[in-house]
Amino acid sequence: MTEQNLSDSGADAILRRAARLPSLPAVALRVLELGDDPYAGPSEVAGVVANDPALSARLLKAANSPLYAMRRQVDNLRQAVNLLGFDAAITLALSFSLQPPANGGCINKRNYWRRSLTAAIFARVLVEHSQGGDTGRFFLAALLQDIGMLVFEQAESVRYSALLQAASSHAELARLESATFGFDHAQVGCCLLQSWNIPEPLWRAVRGSHNLNVNDAPAQSSLLDRYVHASGQLADYCLAGAPDEEALSALAQWAQDYLELDTDGFMAVIDRVATLLPDYSALFEIKLLTDQEVAHFVAEARDIRLLRNLKSLQEARDYKSRSEVLEARNRELEVQNQSDPLTGLSNRRRLAELMEREYLAAKKQGWPLSVGFLDIDHFKKVNDTYGHSAGDVVLKALARMMKEELRRSDVVARYGGEEFVVLLPGTKESDAFGLLDRLRRHIAKTRFTHDDAGISVTISIGLASVNVEHSSDSGFDSAEDLLRAADRALYAAKREGRDRTLRHSRDI
What we know:
Domain GGDEF: 367-506
Radius of gyration: 27 Å
Shape: elongated
CATH topology of the largest domain: Hypothetical protein af1432
Strand order of the largest sheet: 2-3-1-6-7
Number of domains: 3
Number of helices: 24
Cofactor: Mg(2+)
InterPro entries: Diguanylate_Cyclase, GGDEF_dom, HDOD, Nucleotide_cyclase, Rev_trsase/Diguanyl_cyclase
EC number: 2.7.7.65
GO molecular function, one term: diguanylate cyclase activity
CATH class of the largest domain: Mainly Alpha
Number of strands: 7
């Protein structure tokens, strides 16, 4: 359809009448800019968030919550952002910034935030179930869908207060807004997001959150538009005191038609949201639903007769367009160019890029950074005794062991031949030593099998760290200098008898 001219819709006039427009904090604006920067990474996000102590604390809390649980406690911001991932860190930082104050105005802020956050959780789960991949923009768009209500509250407080009292549901509120002002809060929110320079896909999704036809007919709408629209309806059902069986049945059928979500998938989404609600309640410090209410809405959903009568199979998806296939192929080739073909680890070229980025971030922020240089002892003897195919088996098995023993936030690369490098962002020297030495001992106890032959190997490890505690021995001038220091420590370990982990020192 022809793009609507929002300046002529009257919604922007509401913005101009608002006494105090909702605005994003400076840190949130910078985080938003990073989201559009193709060269930005976790280091840049952590550097910006570090300027806001309260936001830093909440990201650390998120990283240590059950939503992102890991075996070890995350104790610094760089580690937290690395664990969360670039997109999730940006989404959470913006989400925390958007949470409104609890008091003031005619809107019940608790109910407002309950609906926004519940819708965002549904959007996340819908895309996880159906598409996989990045969920951040879906979560954020759903979270923003009601932000126009805050503008109405500022610009038309008296009339809007009357509408809030008259509306018996969220959908009815949107209808009363349109009847009174000629547009609803979704359209006003769209104008606000445009004024913040929010990317177009997000403000379009907000604009169509109540009425998809404002953008396009449902079948022609983007997946983002459709997921956000469904998330709001599901949130209303979830938060309703008395579930509406007909409304849920219609929504289940709509999900089948426009989200390709069959009966089992629809129920799986509801079950998954039910498991996430308590953790998000704790993270955002607001009670979304009581345990009894969660159990009630899940039970009601299971009892909807229409769910048992919907088609059991999805219609086959259309073949992806040629451009999508080519794009996927290009991504695959890019990954191949950054990976070692034998082990699947990062290659030397990719390692250099990551080391440079992490080194600069560690020096700027004062975060610890450790590098381990690993070499298989007497590897030539393995090839000479058992053959090169046996050597390849050992290399691949060691690569798997390193990825399993180390953390998701760590980087393992094959440097060349039988040499490997482990990059440990946000890790102190003492922790890195313990981690690498446990790996060394584990490898020494392992027997690798090839053609019925048992092969044992040992490794030597050199360790160097930036920002070493209680030591002046951490002044490396570059990432390359840091790697050379770890290499020197490695060869010192070999001179001392091999099968050992040695820290770098100026005496080496």
